[in-house]
Design brief:
The chain is 82% helix and 0% strand. It is mostly helical. The chain has one domain. It is globular. About 6% of the residues have low confidence. Belongs to the UPF0056 (MarC) family. Keywords: Cell membrane, Membrane, Transmembrane, Transmembrane helix. It is found in: Cell inner membrane; Cell membrane.
Length: 209
């Protein structure tokens, strides 16, 4: 039961941070207005593969980074919570990464933008990086590690479906609908950020007091 609860929390957390509907709106804003269905499908596939590869890189090398810089798990949890809190405030305010994207358009083909900037850093940014490391450090056995990987892969697949059908979703929801979804995801991310911060501070206080 506890494993299922952890899996559910991880899945919801990843979904809220990735915010596929909000990201799809940003992606459409930096891609060509007359992009074809075939191209958007290719971009969705490449971007999804990019974030999955990035996930496994962080999952495998995250602990090494912590040890290399001498960063404690609890300190990372507090800092990660602050990063997520800032991200949540940005989502709730309604400002997005697309503010500076007008100049991103260049002679590059749309498909070349699938990895950078859509995959990294727009979709897979600091928020996901810290969250993955925090969740990895909470893993106690191989089953929990499997559920963590499964939770992310499911969200990567959902992200793929949303981005692939982003043109239709944009027409159905409209700008207002997309903003509402992003704000709701921001509230969830904010609540999780507070939880990370409080939990990290409690553990740090037990260590130093």
């Amino acid at each position: 039961m506890e494993i299922f609860q952890n899996f559910l929390q991880q899945s919801i957390t990843f979904f809220a941070i990735i915010d596929p509907i909000g990201i799809s709106a940003i992606a459409l804003s930096i891609l060509s207005p007359n992009i074809s269905k075939t191209q958007i499908s290719i971009i969705a596939r490449k971007t999804s593969i990019t974030i999955i590869v990035a996930f496994f890189v962080v999952l495998i090398s995250g602990d090494l980074v912590l040890k290399l810089f001498g960063i404690g798990e609890d300190s990372l949890q507090v800092m990660g919570g602050l990063v997520l809190l800032l991200m949540a405030l940005t989502m709730v305010r309604g400002s997005s990464s697309s503010e500076a994207q007008d100049d991103t358009r260049s002679s590059k083909k749309d498909e070349e933008m699938a990895v950078i900037p859509i995959g990294i850093p727009i979709t897979f940014g600091a928020g996901l990086f810290t969250t993955i490391i925090i969740f990895k450090n909470q893993v106690e056995n191989s089953i929990e590690l499997f559920t963590l990987v499964l939770a992310f892969c499911i969200n990567a697949f959902l992200f793929y479906l949303v981005l692939r059908n982003s043109v239709y979703i944009k027409k159905y929801l409209g700008v207002t609908g997309q903003n509402v979804v992003t704000k709701l995801m921001g509230l969830i991310v904010g609540a999780l950020a507070i939880q990370f911060i409080v939990s990290g501070i409690i553990h740090l206080s037990k260590t130093y007091i």
